[in-house]
Amino acid sequence: MNATANARFAIKSWDETPYSEGPNLPKMTKATVEKSFTGDIEGDSRVEYLMMYRSDGTALFVALERFTGRIGSKSGTFVLQRSGEFDGKQANESYTVVRGSGTGDLRGLTGEGASSVGHGADFPFVLRYSLPT
To answer: What pLDDT is stored for residue 46 in this prediction?
Structure first.
């Protein structure tokens, strides 16, 4: 990766619904989340999370997120694949730009990152990325 974008995101909405649960079973949920980004990355995204909650309050999650906006002066859309775990206090995750998902000026975008965030109003987001010239 030859560039780094530093941004922050705020959660605009979180709609989570159980889709599988029962006695002595881990609860499984789906959450639709909308975010707004500021900084080197500006725009909005929509994420579809699938989560599995353990009885101790920890969780595992996977997600796909479509971002619409800009990175620096380049605008378009792209999709992130996210996966991680929640340890009861912090969500630790990694994310990768899905190959072939970039549109507009972001066509050909590759990238990755990782984060560790707790509860709060806004969160740091770092993307190490490359764009074709």
So the answer is: 98
**pLDDT on residue 1:** 58
Q: What is the band of 3 on the pLDDT scale with cuts at 50, 70, 90? A: very high
Whether the pLDDT of residue 122 is over 70: the answer is yes
Based on its alpha-carbon atoms, the radius of gyration of the chain, rounded to whole angstroms, reads: 15
Q: Which CATH superfamily includes the segment(s) 3-125?
A: SO1590-like (2.40.350.10)
Q: Rounded to the nearest 5 degrees, what angle is found at the Cα of 36, between the Cα atoms of 31 and 39? A: 140
Distance CA 22, CA 59 (A): 16
Domain ranges of the chain: 3-125
Tokens at residue 81, please? Answer: 């694949």
Under the phi-then-psi rule, with left for phi > 0, alpha for psi from -120 to 50, and beta for the rest, what region is 104?
A: left
Collect contacts of 30-35 with beta carbons under 8 A, ≥24 apart: 35/9, 35/10, 35/11, 35/65
Three-class SS of residue 105?
helix
Residue 121 has pLDDT above 80, yes or no: no
Whole-prediction pTM: 0.92
